[in-house]
Amino acid sequence: MSPSSADLLRQVKSEIDEVDPAEVKELLQEGVVIVDVRETEELSSGLLPGARHVPRSYLETRIEGIEPDRSAHIILYCASGNRSAYGARTLREDLGYEHVESMTGGITLWKDRGYEVDVPRTLTPEQRDRYSRHLLIPEIGAGGQQKLLDAKVLLLGAGGLGSPTALYLAAAGVGTLGIVDDDTVDLSNLQRQVIHSTQRVGIPKVDSAEETIHGLNPDVNVVKYPVRIDASNIMEIISGYDVIVDGVDNFPTRYLLNDATVRLKIPVVSASILGFDGQLSVFKPYEGPCYRCLFREPPPAELAPSCGANGVLGVLPGTMGLLQATEVVKLILEIGDPAIGRLLLYDALAATLSEVKVHRDPDCPICSRPPDEISDEEMGVFPDYEAFCAAAG
Amino acid sequence: MAKIKIPPVLRASVGGEREVNASGENVGEILRDLADSHPATADQLFSSDGELNRYVNVYLNDEDVRVLEGLDTAVGDGDTVVILPAMAGGR
Questions:
Q1: Is A293 a catalytic residue?
Q2: I want to staple B91 with a disulfide (CB 3.0 to 4.6 A). Which of A44, A249, B44, B50 is the partner?
């Protein structure tokens, strides 16, 4: 005679080790691997602190991604302790995990005892749909998407570089995008500044960018700064951002931004463009070189094509801006190898992407010192901007 | 003989070329050869005392010559010298 479900459950529980919630609570601090095997829709009321989630139906295929070591101490739980019992038997009998236990009574008993739970911030059904291609990538997943949604990224400039960067960061679901730009949309911008449009010529760039971003992704909170960044406002504007995207068009602001971000330890994804050439690097304070380590001094004004209008291939800021957006996403997700200590050189005419090494300068006037020793007076020390550009003629 | 990559701001000084060849045993000689062939580059590369200007970065292949032997860094056939001043365009 075939066993009933109840018989089978009794049989399984007799073959595995069970552990009481009180004991699990004590083990939480000791690096035990705790796996919640419930279905995704059951998680909204909370998980055990530090628990990983693998639905029972995926347990065999995904457990090695969480803990490949067969001798590791693993505790499974579900709602009441039945599904986790079956899971524990499978891990032990079929996959050879030696130290697997099922928590008695599941999370229901855990909560009845008044123990702490982590209530996950889950994506809405619409967000799961919108970001589904991210959720399918193991390096991102729901956790990574939540990091993107929680991230605050500041874009210096809604121009050539800032346009594509803002569009793709908004599409990717970066939750807060600050945009600093005091300019208005001009017809000559539209050859490359794709976040703006012909209908919006004459309106402030921050407003135009906001409209496009919200049309693309209403999840994004746009913070507008229709000002020119300078020594008097930079600390207030950049404080609280996780990553800053430098697409500014002049040297004084680049040096000022460097000094302020080193002081606040905010990473900067920096790019610049001219003609058919682009440069990109990530400056992560105290982990890699800063902008002054790379370029201790700006070139003299006559050799600094940063004042006024310079020619640029319309596509080029798209290419460089999207490389910047990629680096921003990597920094937020803490994946891959960001371009720290490397300067990427893109030559559009040659169709080559090469790189040179950038070293921390032990004598760097800024980042060779602790951040709290960098004074207001030292920040952005640079020839006067108006004089600098006037000298360029 | 080594190849020198010319940055956009210096291209007008070398007849619009993006790469030029130059001779020399080390980085200093290579850059001097460039300056001799294209005098308009001299002031942009070297200060009045003959040192490399601080705002010009020079790399041998992918390494900054300042962490090598500076202008004395030996250059072999097939090496590439990259001249790289800062650029600030973003718009």
A1: no
A2: A249
Mutate to test the interface with B, among A189, A294, A295 (most CBs of B within 10 A): A295
- Phi, psi angles (nearest 5°) of residue B59: -120, 140
For B5-29, write each residue's pLDDT tens digit: 998 888 889 999 999 999 999 999 9
Torsion angles phi and psi, residue B42, rounded to 5: -60, -50
Residues of B whose CB is below 8 A from A296: 54-55
Q: What is the CA radius of gyration of chain A?
A: 27
Tokens of A329: 């996403």
| Cβ-based contacts of A310 with chain B (< 8 Å) | 89
Chain A partners within 8 Å of B48 (Cβ): none
pLDDT in tens, A287-301: 999 999 999 888 777
- CB distance B52 to B29 below 8 Å: no
User: Rounded to 5 degrees, what angle do the CA atoms A352, A357, A361 make?
Assistant: 150
Q: Is B12 on the interface with A (CB under 8 A)?
A: no
CATH of B2-85, one of 3.30.870.10, 2.40.50.140, 3.40.50.980, 3.10.20.30: 3.10.20.30
Query: B78 in contact with A at a CB cutoff of 8 Å?
Result: no
Active-site choice (A293, A307, A367, A389): A307
**Beta carbons of A225 and A207 less than 8 angstroms apart:** no
Interface test with chain A among B58, B73, B91, by most A beta carbons within 10 Å = B91
Is the complex ipTM more than 0.90?
Answer: yes
The last residue of one of the domains, among A60, A91, A112, is A112
